[in-house]
Model the fold of this input.
Amino acid sequence: MALDPETATVLAKAATIAIGGIFPAIAIGKTASKAMESIGRNPESADKLFVPMLLGMAFAEAIAIYALVITFIL
Amino acid sequence: MLALPPLAAETIFQIGDFPVTNSYINSTLAVALFASVGLLMRKRAAEIPDKIQNFAESILEVVLGYMDQVTRDHKKSLKFLPVVGSLFLFILLSNWIGIFPGIGSIGRWLTMHGQLELVPLFRPANTDLNMTLAMAVMAITLTHIFGIAAVGVFRYANKFVKLGDIWRSLRKGGISIFVALIEFGVGIIEIFSEIAKMVSLSLRLFGNIFAGEVLLTVLGTLLAVPIGITLPFMALEILVGLIQAIVFSMLVLVSFSMATAELHEAH
Done:
C-alpha cells in the first residue's frame, strides 16, 4: 500500500505523540505512586518529598514535551 | 477551520529595525505590572505592612521556605532569591496572563505568507522559544558565574576539564590514574550536559505553555458553544502554569546550589 505524503505526515505526528506519551506517563505515574506510598508510611515527609518528586516528574515529562515539540514541527 | 497558533511569534509592528512580536507585547505587560507593583511597594514599605505589602511578604516567605529546602542554607537562599524568585514570579505571571480572555483572540488583519490573516495582538510570553531560551541561557550562565565566585576559577574549571585530578593521581600512582582518566571523560560529558540543560529547560517551558494554548484553541472549536468544555481545561492551564514556573525555578535553583557547593576532595 502506497502512502501519499500528507497521510504519512499525519500518521507520523500521531505515532510520535502516542508512543512518546506512553513511557513518560508510566514514569510520572511510578514517581507519584512511590511518593504517595512513602507519604502513607511517613506522613511527615510530605513537605520534604514535594520538591524532589516534582523535579523527578519534570525530568520524565521533558521526554513527552520533546515528542510534543517534534509533533508540532513535523 | 482551525486557526492554530503558529510555532513562531508573529511581528505586529516595527520600531525602526526592531520587530515587536505579539509575545514580546505580553512579556512587556508582565514586566510593566511587576515594575509598577515594585515601585508602589518601595514607596509604601512600612514597619506595619498594609494589605499589598502583607501579600507580597507572604509570597516571598513561601518562596524562601521552599528555597531553604533545596539549598539547606538560608544565606544561600537569600543570595539566589533575586534571580530564582523573579524567574518564578515572571514565568507564573506571564503564564497566567496568557489565559486571560482576549489573549490570542484580539488581533490585527495583516498579510502573512501572502494572505490576509488575523494575527493575535497578544500571545503568552512563554509560547515564544526565544523567550524561554533567553531565560535558560541566562540562568545557566549565572550558574557558572556563581560557581566561580564560590569555589574559584581553577577549582571550578576542574569540574569540567579534570586536569587537576589527573595531576594529583599521577603523584598517587597506581589504579587512581585510570580512575582519573575515566573521570576526565565524565567531565567532558558534563560540558555537554550543561548545553542539554539549557535545551531541556527552555523546551520544557515552551512546549508546555504552547501545548496549552493549542489545546485551548482546539477545544474552543469543538462545539458551537464552547463555554462548558474549555472551562476545566482552563483550570488545568492555571495549574500547569504554576507547576511549570515551580519546575523551571527549582531546576535553576538546584543547579545554582550544586555549582556553589564545596567540591569533594576525595572519592
Observations:
- Residues 11-260 of chain B form one domain.
